[in-house]
Amino acid sequence: MWERLGTILAGILGLVMAAALSFTYLEQSVGPRDEAPVAKQATTTQTAEKQVATKVSTPTKTNGSLVPKTTSTQKTVVAPGPLRSTTKASPASLTVSGVIAYTNAERANNGGLSALTENALLDRDAQLKLDDMFNKQYFEHVSPSGVGPSDLATLVGYQYVIVGENLALGDFAGDEGVVTAWMNSPGHRANILNTNYEEIGVAVGKGMYEGRETWLAVQSFGMPISSCPAIDAKLKAKIEENNKTIAILRTQLDAKKAQIDATPKSDPAYNTYVEEFNILVPQYNNLVETNRFNVTTYNGGVQAFNACIAAVGSASPTH
Question: Cα angle at 12 between 9 and 18, to 5 degrees?
Answer without folding.
Answer: 140
